[in-house]
Amino acid sequence: MSNSNKHIKEFLNYYLNKEQSPDYAVLITGCWGSGKTYFIRQYLDSKGAAGKNVVKTFDWLNGFERYTVVYVSLFGAKTRDDINENIERILHPKINSKNFEYLPDAISLVSNLSGIAVGTTVAATTTIATGGSMAPYAVPAGVAIGSALGNFFKNLFSKKKNKDVFTSDFIDEIKNKKKRLVVVFDDVERADMPLPELLGYLNEYVEHLHVPCILLADKDKWEEAQKCQEDKSTLHHLSSTKEKVIGKEFQIQTSFDEVWNVWFDEEKHFLGDKVWRLLNEYHDVIAQVFELSETTNYRSLKHSLFDFQRFVENIQNDFLTNPEFNSLLIADFFAHQYAYYLGMFSATDVGQSNAWQRGFAEAMRKRTRDKQENIEEKYPLLPYETFEKKFQNLNRLTYAQITNDYYKQWLQIWEHWFKYNWVNSDRLNEIVYNSIWFKQKDNYYLNKMYEWFMLDDESGDKAMNAFEKALETKTLNSPISIMCLCSKLYWLAQRNVFKEDYIGFCHKMESYVNLAKNELLYENVDDWTQHTMLDSSYSECAEKLNDLQAILKNIMACKKEEHKQRQIELFLANLLSENQALSEHTCEKLEHEHLDEKDFNLCDIKPEQFCEIYRKIKTHNKTRLFNALGRRYKRNPTQKEIEKSFLQNVLKNAQNIYDNAERPLTPSIFAFYYLIRTIKEILGEKENVA
C-alpha cells in the first residue's frame, strides 16, 4: 500500500478499533478512477475482508472475535428504501432473490397440501382402526394445520420485508455475539436523492446506531453535488448536517506502481499470459504515458489494457519479437487509447491539424513583417494537436519511421480504431511487415537520419552511409519521405554537417528527384499537412525547399492518372475477391471512408463496369454493396452531389439490364431490382421497376 496513504490506513485502524465507535463517518475522496475503491478493498483485504458487495467476517478488532463488513454502492439510489433493499440483499442474498419472493406463497400452498395429506393419512388410519368408519374430523384438522403453517411464513416474510434493515435491536444482537459492524458506502456522489436527505440517512447509522461508516466519493462530483444544494433555504442545514455526519475527510493518493503490481501479480491472467508478459516487460513505457498525461485515472488505464489485448490479437506473433517495435507500438497505443478515454480528442479529431495554416501564416508574417496578427489565436491547436504536443517527448511508433509515409499509415489505423472500434488485421500486419523492423531492415539506418544528432558515433556513421547509398541506388522513393527527411537534413546542412553547404544540399536533392522520377512512388502531395510539419525545422527551411516541393508535385501530377486507374482496378477486384473478409472490408470502406476524390471517386468508374461487377459478385456481397451504397450518402450528403452523375448513369445502365433481360429472370439479374431501388431512394426518385 502506498506510503502516501499511510495516514489514512492508520486513522482507519484507530477509527475501527475503538471500543466506543466515534459518532461520525469517514469520507475518502479522489478523482474519478483514482483508486478509491481499490484502496479500501486492499485495506480490507489486509484485514481479511476483501471483496465488493459481499459480507465478510474476520478476526481483527480488539475485544471482538469477528467483524462484519457490508459494502454497498449508492449509485442510482432514489430513496432510503432503495438503500435498505441493497443492504438487505447483501446481508441475505438468497432470501432477497426474486425467486424467494414467491416462497411464502409456495410454503402456504405446500403446507395446505401437506395438511390435506396429513388429514387423509389420519383418516385412512382411522378407517382401518375402526373397521371402515372414517373419522369425520381428520381432513379438516390437516387443512387447519397446513393453513396455519402457511400463514405463519407469510406473516414472517411480510414483517421482515417491511422493517428497517438496521435497528438498535439488530445492532445489540451483533454486539451480544461479540461482532462488530462496519458499512462502506461507495459512489456516495452518485446517489439520486437530495444531499441533506442522504446525510440524514447516514446520520442514523453513526449517531444513533453507532455504526462505523466509510464513505467513498468522486472528489469533483461530490463538491459539485454540494454546490447544487447550497441555496438560501438549505445552505445552513446542509453544512451543519455535513459537519455532524462526516468527522474526517481524506483524499486518496495511489501510485502507478502500486496499482500496476496488484494488477500484474494477483490478476495476471485477466489479460492472458501472452499479453501479460508483453505488457509487464514494457511497464516503464506505460508508466511514462501515465506520467505525461498528467491525469490519474486507473479505471481508464485498465480499460486501455483490455483494449490493447483486443488490438494486439490482430498482429502476427512473429512481429512481436522485435523489442524496439514492441516498445514503440505499446507507447503509441497507450498514448492514444488512454488520451481518448480522458477525452483529449474524439474519433473524428484523429490527424486533424492547423499546422500547415500556422506555418504558412508565419511565413507570410515574416515576409510582410506584420507583428499584429495573432497566428495562435487565428489557428489554435486542435484537440489532436494538443494530444500530440502532450506526448511529444514519448518515443512512439507514429513518429518512429518518417520514411515511407509511416506517419500517415498509422494515423489511418488509429482513426479506424476509434471510429469503428475495429481494425483491419490484414492492413495492420501489412503496415507492420513493410516497416524498417521487418521487410525493410535495410532502411533501418536510413530512417535513423531523422534523429541523427541523437545517435552515437558508430550509428551516426551507419545512418549517413545508408542515406548516401539510398541516393546512389535510387531507393529513397517516397515523395513525402523525401520532403520530411530533407526538412530535417537541410537544418543539419545549415550547421555544416555535410560535405556540401545548405545550398549545395538543396541542389543535390533536386537533382536526385529528377533522376529518380521513374522510381518514385505515387503519393498525394497536394499539401504537406501532417507529413512535413513534424517539427520546427521545416518552418525554418520551408521557403528553401519550395523548388524541391514543386519538382515533386509535377512528377506526381504525371503519375496521378495512372495511380487513379490502379486504385479503381484494385477497388473492383476486391469486390470480386474470393476472400470474404477482403470483399466485406471493401464494402465497409465504401460506406464509411468515402474514397479520396483526389485519388479517385466513384465518378471515375464506368457505369457499365460497375454493373458488370455487381452482376458477378456473390449474392450476400450484392446485399452488402447496395446497403453500403445507401448508407454512404446518408453519412455524407455532400458526397452525393459529388457523385450524382455516377449514380444517375449506374441507374440508367442497371434499369436497361433489368428491362431487356430475357424472362424468366436469373437471380443475378433480379438482384438489379434492389440496386435500382437503392439508387432511386438515394436520388429521391419514386420506385418504378417493371
Could you please describe the fold and organization of this structure?
- This protein is mainly α and 690 residues long.
- It has 5 domains: 3-96 and 178-251, Rossmann fold (3-Layer(aba) Sandwich), CATH 3.40.50; 100-162; 255-439, no CATH class; 474-576, no CATH class; 580-683.
- It has helices at residues 6-17, 36-46, 80-91, 103-129, 138-162, 168-176, 195-208, 219-229, 235-245, 256-266, 273-281, 283-293, 298-312, 323-341, 355-368, 375-378, 383-390, 397-400, 406-420, 425-433, 444-447, 457-473, 479-493, 502-515, 536-541, 546-576, 580-592, 607-616, 619-635, 637-642, 644-660, 667-670, 672-683; strands at 25-30, 55-58, 66-73, 179-186, 213-218, 246-251.
- A 6-stranded mixed β-sheet has the order 2-3-4-5-1-6, sandwiched between helices.
- Helix 4 packs antiparallel against helix 5.
- The longest helix has 31 residues, at 546-576.
- It is globular and about 90 Å long.
- Residues 51-65, 106-143, 159-163 and 529-536 have low confidence and may be disordered.
**C-alpha-based Rg, rounded:** 37 Å
Question: For the largest beta sheet, what order do the strands appear in spatially?
Answer: 2-3-4-5-1-6
Summarize the biggest pleated sheet.
Answer: 6 strands, mixed
Average pLDDT level? 78
Residue windows where pLDDT falls under 50 for at least 5 positions:
51-65, 106-143, 159-163, 529-536
Structural shape:
globular
Helical region count? Answer: 33
Strand content is 5-15%
Give me the secondary-structure category: mainly alpha
Query: What is the first-to-last residue Cα distance?
Result: 77 Å
Number of strands: 6
The total tally of domains equals 5
Report the helical percentage. Answer: 55-70%
